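Reply to dn_fold:

You asked what the input looked like. This is it:
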Amino acid sequence: MLMPYLAGYLAGPLGLAAWAVGLVLGVRNFSQQGMFIVGGTLADRLGYKPLIVAGCLLRTAGFGLLVVADSLPAMLIASAATGFAGALFNPAVRAYLAADAGDRRVEAFATFNVFYQAGILLGPLAGMALLAFDFRVTAAAAAGVFAVLTVAQLLALPRHRAEPAAQPSSVLDDWRSVVANRGFLLFALAMIGSYVLSFQVYLALPLQAAVLRPGNETALVAAVFVVSGLIAVGGQLRITRWFSDRWGPRRSLVVGLLVLAAAFVPLAVVPDGGRFGTAAAVAALLVSSALLALGSAAVFPFEMDTVVALSGDRLVATHYGFYNTVVGVGILAGNVATGSLIGAARAAGLAELVWLGLTAIGLVSAAALYLLMRDGGKLAPSTPLTASEP
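and this is what came back:
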């Protein structure tokens, strides 16, 4: 609802310099991605519900501060609060869901992703409507939403905490245990490519829209997000069922990564309007966004379930926190590399190299995941999907 428009508000009405805008957004990203391990550790030690409630409350405060903040220090505090809030509740939510779902984890994560993607689709649309009044109205509305969520979670969410360890351990001991989990660590590294590719709906695809429709790309970017959101919201459960029935839980991860890799092939074939015309280039962009949504929907439930399986049902939230931190660093590095490649490829008149490079990332990740499964069965088998399709 709010975050897609923060940069414009900082640079526009507040008049912050470009470096200050980057600093605010960077602090927000680091306070979430860099602190996931902290949130996961606290969730395993204090219980999942307290961290979910605390995260919602902190995000309420962060959005509330954005209503009144008019200076760089205040904006930095507000952005850090909203980011760290996500670090608090995200690992706890996933661990809570995994514990509560039992043998139906894959279906539970698929259902979770339906609502998550619905929020991604509808939130920015609601924020855009509220921006007609003022950014501060949008911030106040976002704070109100999280205030309601805080109260609802506090009153309605049953308490649920991790199984106590056989022997008490320190935080550092827990972190050493996670890092020493070789299968889990290799899985996290292999899955970085999946996140780098999925994130291109926010980076490379909007930049491509600007190339195809310079000065008038807003409608095309909106179409990209609508296509992506509709596939995720409308097809997630059916996609999960179909992949599970056809390939099984573990192989579905590899196939899903191959779909993500294939998502950039249309753009490699039609990298601009000069080859087959603008209409063909726009169609390639929309097909790419659809394939990205399909691949992401295929991967997510099995990915989340595999993290639980590799944790051995111990320190689940800590594993989720560490996992998110690893892929967060990977996304940062991948985005820097992708942005640099986009600039260099366009300057050289070889725009298709960007899309071929992204395809290669997907193929390497899929191959790494396949080798993990083949060599000694490093990935523990996932729980079966037993629920009927709606």
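DSSP finds 17 helices and no strands in the chain.
Hope that clears it up.
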